[in-house]
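Data availability (excerpt). The following record was deposited with the supplementary files.
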Amino acid sequence: MALSVSELVAELRRAVEGQVGDQVVVGEVGSCKPASSGHVYFTIKDERAQLDCVMYKFQAAASRVVLREGMKVELFGKATVYEGRGRLQFTVTRVREAGLGELQARFEALKRKLAAEGLFDAEGKLELPPFPKSVGLITSATGAVIQDMRHVFERRAPWIKVFLLPVQVQGAGAEHGIASAVRAWGRFDEFGLPPVDLLIVARGGGSLEDMWCFNEEVVARAIAECPVPVVSAVGHETDFTIADFVADLRAPTPTAAVELVTPDGPALDAWLEDCGERVKRRLYQVWERADLMLGLLVQRKFKSPLDVLNPFIQRLDDLEYEWEDAWQKRLQSGYDWLDRMELELKARHPKQFCRMMGERLDGLEVRLKSAAAQRFAVASGALELLAAQVEARSPQETLKRGYALVQGEDGRLVRDAEQVPEGTRLRVSLARGKMSVVRREDGGEAADGEELQPDGV
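Predicted structure:
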């Protein structure tokens, strides 16, 4: 059966997605064309083949990797066939720069090693001075980072002396230059460097590969051994390096590092100005009082200089009395409180509780006995009534009224004379005693020789 083009392409798409499906592809980015829709269309290639790729808008916006031609990448996604053109295509969901997996493994291994040695422990961190007089910068002499940091220093603390020791912050061998600079400022007198109160090791943002020199062990050990407090300010807030963990303080950005280590100059000026005004007002008040006292002495208003002190001495006496009275009241209040607590504790003493429970049990016992006696009396009366009723209805009482019970030889009661054949011996029970009789039609003698005059029996 012949297939249409769309049917064949659909079969090819299902076959590719079913047999190949999700994959990770490593290669070099060829042509790369971001579309106005937000999608990114590009090719990935190696020395033998090339593959069309697409990364849709939402995945492209979430990706931290900006694709560019010639870039080595790892692509996570799914192989499929684009039915509109019938071409094999790789739909990308995530992008990672090639080699980052190995770098991340090296990062974690070194992090575990240094942590085990205690280089990250808070106990080994140096305290930063609150008001540094001089700061050393270890960063690149070019670029926006050093300019941004200089502007923040000028705005917040222009009196701080800032010294720059330029180093390479990217590329092969940069880690040795950074480590040497840190060690040199740790022994500033040997290398002819000016003494500083703290160091800032800084660099702007970038990829993991760009900032890898700050993840080298030589840099970490140089920072850990430095006798001067070191602030690490590498990358952006989401970037973390080994230098951040070893340093005495980690700053999210280089400019944030300057703000963390410097006091706010304008705020400090305002606070000092306020303190100065308060000191002036206080001094003026003291001066006015002293001038008044001196004027009174000059005018001979007092016979002796002690006259000036007497009011104050009297005031001190008053304060002493007030203090003693307040403490006496406070102590008495404490004693009263202790007395109340003592009474409350006595009331809650186990012996008191047991006594109360004993009294309660005694009361319950009396109530129980009274209730039992009442119930017993009621039950006894009911029982006597029932006994009287039973006795009144008993067969013996019936016999006392002149009735008799007649039983056959088998012990059964006789209720009908026709059912008893002649000559049958019967047993008669009376109110007092029993006797035996024989059934006679003409009223014969009893079997025992007793003469009876029954009517038919």
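Summary of structural features: The chain is about 45% helix and 20% strand.
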